Amino acid sequence: MIDEGKTVPMFELSDADGNIVKTKDFKGKKFVVYFYPRDFTPGCTVEADEFSKNYKKFQKLGIDIIGISKDDVESHKKFCKKMSIPYILLADTTTKVSKLFGVWGKKKFMGKEYMGINRSTFLINKKGKIFKVFEKVKPKGHSKEVLDAYVNAEK
Fold first, then answer.
1. Can you give the pLDDT at residue 72?
2. Residue 22, burial from CB neighbour count under 10 angstroms (0-12, 13-18, 19+)
3. Would you say 133 and 120 are in contact if contact means Cβ atoms under 8 Å apart?
4. Looking at residue 111, what is its pLDDT?
5. Is the CB of residue 15 less than 8 Å from the CB of residue 144?
6. How many CB atoms within 10 Å of residue 51?
7. Which of 52, 79, 136, 137 could pair covalently with 39 via S-S, beta carbons 3.0-4.6 A apart?
């Protein structure tokens, strides 16, 4: 996993509308990159909903939100529509970006091991540096936790 203080990795992925989104599109901006396992699953739905509910608060602070999962563009499009998600979801179908951030790895569920995205969030400042990393994120309340971290970082 990428450590705090490191520069955010350069990447480009397609959003829910098929547009290419690049790291450099956020140069000079504050932004959140959160990785989640899958569209339409219970925890991911809670997390997406909470970021959506707090979206205006993030905007007021000048913070963009990017959600990334292994789901494809079509899945993201359906998820955004159903959940009224106002921010960017990116499709990392090859897991290249998940591996760059170090969130792709072994997981365990009901005694079975498999490879997948470990729910994690990275907070990036205007200089493109990761100033806070949340590992093993619990979806409930995480959006507020992220907002608080940005507010506290600016004090």
1. 98
2. exposed
3. yes
4. 87
5. no
6. 25
7. 79
Give the number of residues written for the chain: 155
Task: From 19, 1, 7, 9, select the one nearest 91 (Cα to Cα).
Answer: 19
Assign domain 12-153 one CATH number from 3.40.50.360, 3.55.10.10, 3.30.930.10, 3.40.30.10: 3.40.30.10
Q: What are the boundaries of each domain within the chain? A: 12-153
Extract the residue ranges of the chain whose pLDDT is less than 70.
155
- Return the pLDDT at 155: 66
Query: What HEC string does the chain produce?
Result: CCCCCCECCCCEEEECCCCEEEHHHHCCCEEEEEECCCCCCHHHHHHHHHHHHCHHHHHHCCEEEEEEECCCHHHHHHHHHHHCCCCEEEECCCCHHHHHHCCEEEEEECCEEEEEECCEEEEECCCCEEEEEECCCCCCCHHHHHHHHHHHHCC
80 is catalytic: no
Return all residues near 95 (Cβ < 8 A) that are at least 6 apart: 70, 104, 117
Q: How far apart are CA 101 and CA 14, in angstroms?
A: 17
| pLDDT for the residue numbered 50 | 97
* 122 vs 141: CA distance, rounded Å: 16
Six token digits for residue 22 = 């690049």
